[in-house]
Amino acid sequence: MPKKPFNSFEMAQAQFDRVAGLLNLDAATRELLRNPLREYHFSIPVRMKDGSKQIFRGFRVQHNDARGPGKGGVRFHPLETIDTVRALSMWMSWKCAVVDIPLGGSKGGVICDPHELSDFELEQICRGWVRQIAKDVGPARDVPAPDVMTNSQSMLWMLDEFEAINGGHFPGFITGKPLNAGGSKGRTEATGYGVVFTIREALKELGIRPGDTTASVQGFGNVARYAIQLYNQIGGTVTCVSCWDQKEKQAFAYRRSDGVNLEELLNITDHFGGIDKAKAVELGYEVLPGEKWIEQDVDILIPAALENQITLETVNDIHKRVKIIAEGANGPTHPDADAVLNKREIFVIPDLLANAGGVTCSYFEQVQSNMNYFWEKDEVLGKLDVKMTSAYISVSSLARSRKVSMRDAAYMIAVSRVAQACKDRGWL
Ligand code: NAD
Questions:
Q1: Are residues 162 and 213 in the same domain?
Q2: In total, how many domains does the chain have?
Q3: Ligand 1 in contact with 194 (CB < 6 A)?
Q4: Domain span including residue 157
Q5: 223 lines ligand 1 (CB under 6 A)
Q6: Of the residues 317, 349, 381, the one at which a domain ends
Q7: Which of 187, 200, 230, 237 is most buried, judged by most C-beta within 10 A?
């Protein structure tokens, strides 16, 4: 039988349905929360460098804004689909709720491949995306942010376009801005550091010293590299990282048994998070096929690249030594594989909790932007640690008291909070 293509939205709905059952939600609540409130599909005409015109497809999906303005990144990817954006927007609702910040869930995307585009063309796509959606987003409605293959420069182009359209300064319109243009100190580190705050708490709970652990990481972008940085600082050793090689159009894993050197690898990495393979070989790294990151003999796996990486096909490749999986990426584990992980008693820190540091710091950025008063980095990261740690403790306490997985517990907390906000507003 031909294999059905993976669909992130079906997976997000399946996860929701499972929790709706655990929470005994009524039919109207299920119907409201398993679909986005609103979605926008549009075309973005762009004049290319060679003078030709190309039309790019763009999306914004607002899953739920009962708890506050929508919040979520804009992803540029050649394989972007509306269902991926729907799934990501739903996950944003749960993520904001689990860390208890007053924001809803949104997500945006454009089908394009930034590897093949000049800066001028990327700028036109960013500005074109804003022109199409400007009246339906804004500091009090829906606040975009960077995601895969968008960055602080993309955010500044988007902000500039929004401000030109609306005539004024609206720094709270978007987060992930450069530091000299209303960004928050600590935002770049926030998601990766947040992943490690939750790993630190999980190790405490399991009675394991961080210094006695090793990890393998999928991805070497924003999330992965700061996770590696803080994990090294608490004493852990990363022995394998993997990333996409644009030249060879495939992923590779880079291994060094006594620990990869973060600075050394960063020096040979392009701005898409791709490590230069030839230079890595010169530095003595062992190069493996990309999928080998999951097979490593380590204590912790950190998927920090793409969705649907731990599946029924790959889950049995996970080494018996692995005790913790911290989901830096969104949706890296298929629900079928999740059941296997639970059976194997691997402690999974689910994406909506593990990678919530990014949105938490984006919320801090929005607060600072709206006040026009900016905090020092230590203050930002200190506040982030408090939020992440208290969210971790709530989830792990519920997981223990209800004897459910960390994922189910995180979902139960998040979905209950969003459902309650909808009820309080009289929507249900
Ligand atoms: P990024 O674009 O900075 O980096 C992505 C990395 O993944 C790159 O190193 C790339 O080479 C690698 N990659 C791509 N395809 C791969 C493959 N097949 N195998 C191995 N590596 C591959 O992206 P990011 O911001 O680090 O985001 C990574 C994940 O984390 C995404 O799922 C994103 O939605 C999620 N996330 C990001 C943030 C954030 O603040 N950046 C917040 C929450 C969640």
A1: no
A2: 2
A3: no
A4: 36-170
A5: yes
A6: 349
A7: 187
